[in-house]
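Figure S7 source data.
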Amino acid sequence: MPVISANVPLLGGVHDIVIDGRDIVRMEPSRRATDLRVGPTLFDIQVNGFAGRTCRMAAADREDALSWIARAMREFGVGWWLPTITTASAEDMEAAFRHCGRILDRDPQTAASIPGLHLEGPYISPVDGPRGAHHPAHVRPPDWDEFQRFQEASGGRIRLVTVAPEIEGAIPFIERCVRAGTVVAMGHTNLNRDSLRDAVAAGATLSTHLGNGAHDTLQRHNNYIWYQLACRQTFASFIADGHHLPQECLYSMIRAKGVDRSILVSDTVLLGGMPPGVYQVGDHQVEKMPEGRIVLSGTPNLAGSGSNLLECTANAMQLARLEEAEAWQLASLNPARLLGLEHRLGLEPGCEASLTLYRMHEHAGTPCFEVVETWVAGQLVYKAGVTARLRLPETPLDAAMPI
Ligand SMILES: [Zn+2]
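Tokens for the predicted zinc ion complex:
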């Protein structure tokens, strides 16, 4: 039986973690001295694409999108993630879900890293600002029958849905989702106090990437960001790439929401993990700057995030002044709790052995994680210096795909 001996910041001290089959079967304090550290594997609930692929690639020659992204994520200690499908036409979205469902049915290795899918849109605010970069032509009110078609196409894998609660039909839609076991987030929303209260009463439990997908300018005291920050019944996710939320903002928002209700996400797109440069993506020229910021060429407008959750976790330590154990909790245990998966992702006997082993360094006062091993469901899926790293494409593989 494999045994991992490492410091466990979430518990304190060195522990021996004994793995049998898929699961952790024993954990005990150890007297061994080691610089290795371990946590439940990082869990990113918002991944649009990475390493030159998008999650919605359905073309026959891009069949490997999910397995490719899963392998790339594991190099960065992200053993669990939710492919995220965003606003498009009904046909395109259904095709994307069908593609994901088909791949996950026949590729258990990849499926072990993907405990569900995230539907972000199309049932969001049509208002400029809250709508973010979602295509206005495809934003629409909730449609339960359409959602059922998406759910069926995916093989019942949609586990998280982001909707705007203030739009027509949203509250009954949220109630039906929650009754059917789907977790509902509020996001890309122009909500007010009443629609927030109604959404929470209907069972919504998350604010998606709070502080982004918002107007540039808001009434200073009465606005949807304060309302959602102040809500004690809900989690909030934050894009901690260092570009979407300035330092003071990330710091203050995480403090206000609290360590037990905050979640880190990358919201990464297909240029995540790609080298800096100018890329043609669909109709747009997109530039990835040397510091990782991704913008529409020649403008300051962000065109998605290029970070992975490991970088976001280090950023949260640096920018929000979190302890290592706190930052790790925000990127692993909290998303598992949100989705009711805490019995599978955690550090106790009976949980899956889905773990990230790492060392901690500091570069010029900035914390930095070096991933040593990634384990998913009892399998060692990445080992630094042993597992061949992915060769990144020089250009995104499907230029016709929206980011
Ligand atoms: Zn979004």
